[in-house]
Fold each of these.
Amino acid sequence: MRTALVDYAVSSGSSVAARRAAPPLEPRPGPEPSPDADRGGAPEPKRNPDPRVRERIARDTRAADALAEAAELSGERRHALKQRVIVEYLGLADAIARRFQGSGVEQNELRQVAYLGLTKAIQRFDADSGSGIAAFAVPTVSGEIKRYLRDATWAVRPPRALQELSLELRARVPALTQRLGREPTVDELAAEVRRTPARVAEALRCMGGRQALSLDAPVGSVDGDDDPSGVSLGDALPAYADDMEERVDLSVTLRSALRAIPLNERRAVHLRYFGDMTQVEIAAEIGVSQMQVSRLLRRGLASLRRELSACGVQE
């Protein structure tokens, strides 16, 4: 887990404590109103009646002013101002982290990643972009969490497209289940995400590769007992054969020797001895005559013997 959030980021996971530790941002003083303001001139803009919206706008303004001031400073003062801005938006990071509660990752871990994304957003924010800090931070924080879920939480990593589809399915399944009143079928999920049923089924299988099962996990009972704690996954695995180590070593050597022989010979040998195909089937597969397949196999086996002999393997 990436817990180093940058030296001024919040690393404790307690946004409440962090807010108490940092003083609130103060608005920068604006220009004095013109004495002619009451006598005509441009009308005042309409204020949004929702107090929550007004508070968000005011917070964005205070934070943008603080970042503009920090850009003109250096050392501890700049550090302190940026830290105060980060603390102002910890609640936003917490809210985004809660959206990913069903991802199979602990909430505290998600919050730490969200704080890292928030720190990056504050560092990259440009006041001239025309958007507020909150609008800029939301996609940055969400993207940081998604990258973390994609890159750091899989025991066995499938292709990226399947990872992203499995995450999308995980997010869609609860809402679709509630709408249908039952678990959705593969076809219904495929229609929901606009993918083929085969692709959706593959992504659903991928979800099992996210977290590895412990060898101590109970998987059965002893002598038909009702207590499932008697047999662990490690106990259920078959014992290694006496020559397992030698067979593994030979398999690695054989793979290396196959890579060293010409491609057409390698393909013929692979189809014959690993694909269990006849010479007639191989001829149809690669588009040559059966006699040519026979010659390819003969040359391929001779090349393979030479390579294995060079590696010290005896017949």
Amino acid sequence: MSKAVAGTILDLVSDQVVRVDPDGKYDFPIHIISHQLPDMLSVADGVRMVGRVRKVRERIAEPVDRDGLSFEPLPFYQGLRAFLTTFPGLLVAIWKASGSGHAALVRLPSTIGLLYALCMIVRRRPYGVQLIGDAAELSRVKTLPTSSRLALRLLSAMTRLVVARASTAAYVTDASLQCEYPAREVPTFAFSNINLPGDRCAAQVRTFDGGRLRLSFVGTLEFDYKGLGDLLDAMAILKECGVDVHLDIMGEGVLRERFEQQATALGLTSVHFHGRVPQAEVLERHRANHVFVLPSYTEGLPRALIEAMAQGMPAVATDVAGNGELLDPHFIVPVREPEAIAQRLRQLAETPTLFAEQAARNLARAGDFVESRIAPLRRDFYATIIQQHDASRRGDRG
């Protein structure tokens, strides 16, 4: 694997929100790229994150400070109305960022990623894309406002265009996202964006012999697409059926208060909101719990689900994107159907042999995603982006 032409920087572009404090110190969930950053820096001289920046008043206790990592702040917005208001300044900032002469990796679906890629198309520069989800799935959720659904359909259509024009593409699924967003005849890759060290897999299969069924949920509470409200409704159904169940919610966001109010209104006293927790604590709670639930409205190939499977946990997830590539079809349920979630959880609680069977199956499947298998594919993808960028630069000089 060759190193980049001297001075090559890789732009990592997505809708990720970065916080910045009054001292100019940055913070974001570093685990998102902590295992990928060394691979990026093995082929590039630096990585620049291009994304929205939210200013906060409090001092950030543990700012992100990694050698080779920098930030390109874009105007902050949240929601369609704010996006439309911010759009002129946002587009100017993205156009400027795309003219830096850096190599580019665009993560999709993301509005900022689309705009950056369109700028690269106008500039006739190569760029790579990584598909981690499907916006079209969200557009089919009928409870969303019509304006939001139309915007998501437009986002999906533009994503197809941007993927078709990319110089290389990576997908987190084996087949589902490739069918929805095909690349042209360019180098393509398929690998999860999960970091699963071999020693993070459970040593033995867990069992459940009755008593309180303990559930894990991991996901952002910043948006509604993780389906937590449906899981709370399923908890209420189980309570009515006499199933003793507990839920640990690991994740933070502006919707937390709304979900807390929902849990209270449903009379759920065994629901604990832990906020954002370190990865080590997530794994600890998985080991103490029994079943992982992912009732999302959209996913790619969910890292949180694979990490739970690696702990030998049975799981219930919705029928979106890559979930069906991971779980037994019986434990894939329709979107927005709390009754189906409750039914599968009750089956696991009342059938110890089924519980053990699913635990063993999921642990074995998670072994396909250990770091030693994924890392070489990931490094080859990054190297391809850099090689195409460097070739383009040499062409300009020639």
Amino acid sequence: MKLQSLAMQSLKSMARSYKQSDRRLFDMDFFTELFPHESEESISAALYLLEEDGFVSIRSGDGLAYMTMLSPDGIRKSQENATLKIGYSFLKEILDLIK
């Protein structure tokens, strides 16, 4: 899986978990269960991308992201993406009705 795709799927999964149970801390096991065919190194690299963008904070050891904390910006970004998708779907339905 491409690194950017892995990062975005990780962010979505963390935001979904936050919405369901207010969980903001995620260990490596959370991600290895989500992505069983990805190495811990690949998952960590994707999480470091999210950290560079300010969506998460990471506690690392041996170059791996052992604990990841979802930031308020990460939560907001995920919610904005969901809102944009809903808006796009709504507009598409309206255009289909007009045609």
